């Protein structure tokens, strides 16, 4: 049991160090909050997020997981803001708010505004703006 606790503590410490190293590489221009931890634009991770979705937008590959967008930079994955017009097949399970506009219902998650768009492959959610 002690070994498991030590391994988990070491993994958590390693994650904190990686986040701090990623944060030191670039200034933060925005903050994305998912659950408790804060994810900053510009943070980098050595591995792609678990269960992420690959998105091609304007011939550039992006990755999407739990409301956070990533781009591969060298051998790392950097947290980026989504581009207007990007479409994702799903929004996060929790934390999505709805707002009514003159153009219909919009969905907001971490400051990103989406609209539902029906496609041949089912409903997708398109980035249409950002909250101030």
Describe this structure in words.
With 132 residues, the protein is an alpha+beta fold. It has one domain. The chain is built from 1 helix and 12 strands. The chain has one helix at 2-25, and strands at residues 31-33, 38-40, 44-45, 53-57, 60-65, 68-73, 76-80, 87-88, 97-101, 104-109, 112-119, 122-130. The strands form 3 sheets. The chain has a 5-stranded antiparallel β-sheet. Strands 8-12-11-10-9 form a 5-stranded antiparallel β-sheet, with no helix packed on it. A two-stranded antiparallel ribbon has the order 1-2. It is globular, with a radius of gyration of 17 Å.
In short:
With 132 residues, the chain is an alpha+beta fold. The protein has one helix at 2-25; strands at 31-33, 38-40, 44-45, 53-57, 60-65, 68-73, 76-80, 87-88, 97-101, 104-109, 112-119, 122-130.
């Amino acid at each position: 049991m002690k070994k498991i606790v030590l391994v988990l503590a070491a993994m958590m410490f390693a994650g904190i160090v990686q986040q701090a190293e990623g944060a030191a590489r670039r200034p933060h221009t925005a903050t994305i909050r998912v659950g408790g931890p804060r994810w900053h634009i510009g943070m980098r991770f050595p591995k792609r997020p678990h269960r992420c979705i690959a998105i091609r937008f304007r011939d550039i590959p992006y990755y999407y997981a739990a409301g956070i967008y990533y781009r591969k930079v060298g051998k790392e994955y950097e947290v980026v803001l989504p581009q207007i017009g990007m479409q994702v097949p799903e929004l996060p399970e929790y934390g999505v708010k709805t707002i009514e506009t003159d153009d219909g219902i919009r969905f907001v998650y971490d400051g990103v505004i989406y609209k539902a768009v029906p496609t041949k492959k089912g409903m997708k959610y398109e980035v249409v703006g950002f909250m101030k």
